[in-house]
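Batch job 17 of 40 flagged for manual review because the log was empty.
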Amino acid sequence: MDLFSAGKTPVKPFLKWAGGKGQLIKEIEQYYPFNNGITKYIEPFVGGGAVLFDILNNYKLQEVIISDINAELINTYLVIRDNIDGLTRLLFKMQNEFLPMDIDSRKAYYMAKRKKFNILKTNNSKDNNIEKAAIMIFLNKTCFNGLFRVNKKGMFNVPMGDYKNPLVCDENNLHAVSEKLQNVKIICCDYRESANFIDKNTFVYLDPPYRPVTSTSNFTAYTKNLFDDSEQIALAGFVDEMHRKEAKIVISNSDPKNSDINDNFFDNIYSSYKIKRVDAARAINCKSKGRGKVKELLISNF
């Protein structure tokens, strides 16, 4: 019996996430292999989950695993799945406190929540998981550009954004997401730990932290551990191992040729795979002139 079925209520990501794949779904959908005997799905860099939710909206699968090394992100997925009522109560409370405030009061409230979030991150007590998830969603809905960024000490450091009426608690979508996640296995771990799950019946989607498009746009700090070129090369080695298991694999990344036509980094490390260049809007950028169309890569072994 299938554990997963395409439900009547479509869900969407509950967080805005740098590099989110909502705008590329139509391109990525063309790779879905679920009509060819693929019954399992794994996404080891789940992020905002645009591809995950698109798949859960549309396909029946026997097994789904998502993971990420970002502990606060994974905690939020777990709380939405397991404690949705407690979460929405806290979100409504913050929404009702925050929205009536003037700008100075909002800034003070935001900074207090940011400080509390970093304290909870540091303490890492399971007793505070619901509050930590609620504050993470609140910060995501009210911070600058919905950015999740931490400093070298792992502390969230994004300033408040300029939103007049942010929807902090999207109750209907959160409940629908909770329902969709009921049979999804959710793990905080490095992508390598998914190897034992992957076999010839598995579709693997890998969306690692992107290689910077330019030398001045080095945003990889979703966690305090940076995902540099050596990590990208190691990931390519992991892809080779999973390819030998006959899994169906798609990888996405930025195209270094956006800034240097002679930069063949990904063409080289994925030379034995199919590489497609697609247009994407760079949505998270502090300067409006940096929000144009760029090429992104979709790399597949089939």
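Reviewer: the log was empty due to a logging misconfiguration, but the result itself is present. The chain has nine helices and seven strands. Unflagging and moving on to job 18.
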